[in-house]
Amino acid sequence: MRRRIRRGLPGIAGLLLVGGALGGATLLAPRPAAAEPELLDRVVAVVDDDIVLLSHLDRSVRSSPQLQEALQMLGPGATEQQLEQKLKETRIVVLDELIDTVLIKKEAAKFQITASEADIQRYLQQLAAGNNYPSVAELRKAVIASGEFGSWEEYRQDIRDQITVYKATSMLANWAVTEAQMREYYRKMARGEDARIEVDRFVFAQAGQGSGARDEAFARAQGIARRLRAGEASDAVIAELGGDPEEYRRTIARGEIAPLLEDALFPATTGEVVGPLASGQGYVVFRVVRHLASEVLSYEEAKEGIRQKLEADAYEKAEREFRQTLRSKAHIDIRL
């Protein structure tokens, strides 16, 4: 699962911080005096025809990574004013998340997107293993002992909501990554590094305009490529073509030539002949002399890591846009 459903056991780390690092200070509003009526719950947001309750918000705040990170940054010497400010900031963030969850669940229902029992069990097993519990049963005991959820079923419902939100976003938001995007990212990543290749380069320019001139240039390039592949030395071909022999030898770095030429040339092995390839000058044929030492991975070696990076970025962007779109069409009344 991706970022929004990959978290540790809700509440236990936060509970320790609240009870220990804060020196007994409470993060919730003080209870009213005994003589006054006690507020059991109230609505903190209305989302179309749905509501978000204060009890749900408070429970989500206590188990939120945002609050845990804020408390760790403040440290044990935090003042009550600092704690209240962090609580206020966290409540706003978490309430936004709950509103988004309501909207995405409604959208998921339209398309019959749900979290199956198998999805929930698989995720609970991952949570148990990730938090060093030998089984889901032990995880259940820890959740109940934390006191942050009214029941195990309430906790499972929270998990169900997270999975549903992730599945709906994955299916309804547009976040595909193409091969072209991965190759472009690789070129930018490798540019400026020591990824270089030494080649003999043979350029065959068109003598004029039109298909006849283009075909003639291609035929000459193809003939030279055939001879080089048959084992003829570059020096012999250079002597026949004429010109300064030094002009034929080139050292090329990534990013210095057109992407189509680069994609064909850099994977080639020493001695391999590449081409004829179309270029702005007509056609070009390469013979690879050597690959120069480099720390840069080849595209095939780096491809999977690039895919994961770009998919994570694309998902995050698509998720943000998806939520903004749902919010723009909804009536939201915040009563925090």
Task: Describe the 3D structure.
The protein has helices spanning 12-21, 54-62, 65-74, 80-110, 117-130, 136-146, 152-172, 179-190, 211-229, 234-241, 259-265, 299-328; strands spanning 43-47, 50-53, 196-205, 249-253, 273-279, 282-291, 332-334. With 336 residues, the protein is of the alpha+beta class. The protein has 2 domains: 3-29 and 39-173 and 313-334, Orthogonal Bundle (Triger factor/SurA peptide-binding fold), CATH 1.10.4030.10; 194-291, Chitinase A, domain 3. Strands 4-3-6-5 form a 4-stranded antiparallel β-sheet, with helices on both faces. A 3-stranded antiparallel β-sheet has the order 2-1-7. The longest helix is centred in the N-terminal third of the chain and has 31 residues, at 80-110. The chain is elongated, with a radius of gyration of 31 Å. The two termini are 31 Å apart.
Q: Pairing-aware structural class of the strands and helices?
A: alpha+beta
Task: Assign the CATH superfamily of the largest domain.
Answer: Porin chaperone SurA, peptide-binding domain
The count of domains is: 2
Question: For the report, how would you describe the main beta sheet?
Answer: 4 strands, antiparallel
Note the gap between the termini. Answer: 31 Å
- What's the helix count? 12
Report the count of strand segments: 7
Global Rg: 31 Å
Q: What integer is the average pLDDT?
A: 82
- The geometry reads as elongated
| Share of residues in helices | 40-55%
Q: Provide the spatial order of strands within the biggest beta sheet.
A: 4-3-6-5
Low-confidence stretches: 1-33
